[in-house]
Amino acid sequence: MVKLSKRLQAIADLVTKGNRVADIGTDHAYIPIYLVKEGRIPGAVAMDVNEGPLLRARSHIASEHLEDCIRTKLSDGFASLLPGEADTGVIAGMGGALMIKILSEGETKVRGLKELILQPQSETAGVRKYIRTHGMYISQEDMVEEDGKYYPMMQVKICSEERSAVSEPEEKHRMLEDAFGPELMKNSHPVLIQWLKREKQIVTEILENLPRQSHTEARRQELLQKMEEISQVLMEISPKL
Fold first, then answer.
1. Of 8, 21, 84, 165, which alpha carbon lies 20 to 30 A from 145's?
2. Which CATH class is domain 6-166?
């Protein structure tokens, strides 16, 4: 039985049961192997831009005797995905800028999916902004802490016309949702609260040790703005606990 890390388990748990999966940047193919063996999905295509990760993926797939259920493809993002080949696209463990590039270059293929499962390692606010400005919305979010690192992840649905008509929050609050996660905030996610408190402590310590000089003023204002945002979100979600 495949044993996933806490991060990979949380990603796998966001995949809708019965969907066929395209795992972009698959590396070891752990997520599709787990989902097929658990009976959560009927099959998957494991894709990577480099041959090395695909060799590892094929080895793991063969060791689990899943060659009939999980295929591998050399592909730059969604480029090699065929129409109707997958329902869910999984992109995890890469920087937000690269993730946005893959989504943008594969926009036509993405439109043919039912959902995306995204776990950016950085620039998460940029990924969330891209989602809401490109005809998609976040339906679920999770966040886990593993080995001292924090990992947010999201299930993203392609918008219907009906959903697109839903009113948007005001600009300032929309920016907070991009930064901290609309569903994480709405559900007062305990790991988000833990991360916010840690970030607040880090910012406080930096401010205390930042010399009051003209060349550090811009940095000070940036940190004060971040502190204000963290405090606002904590005030919003803490009463829900």
1. 21
2. alpha beta
